Amino acid sequence: MAKPEAQPLIGANVVPLMQSAAPTNYHKLNVEYDVKRAGSQAIPEHVQDQAQAIVERFNKKIARTHHCSYVARYKGKYLYLDRDDGGYVSHICRLTYTGEMNAWEFTIYKYSDGRYDPEEWFFPGSEKLDGTIEGAMKAGLEAYPP
Question: Does residue 13 lie within any of the structural domains?
Fold first, then answer.
């Protein structure tokens, strides 16, 4: 699965990093954990905090060798992992919160279709998927090299 040539992505969900200097708590959303809505539960704030810490640790590890960093976004039950590759942010994958930190459901972003595709499982790096956020980021590095 080939990633298109680097180009500025413009839109509501994608912003060049230089223009997105957000406060350190930008990843926190004002969402409520609604136990009545099974299957569409928002990710609790404490889980978002844990996820953000995992992303930041991973970014520190990969920054020296890959010159890129992951950016987390949250919407409802989804954690979106985008990646900044030298000033351009691109979609990589979407994780679905299942209630367990080590059991996230993975969906890769498919550039050929312009959407997250839950049916796509044959791509470089798929063997890295283990239900963890770090496994998803490792898979993203192979599926879409920086």
Answer: no
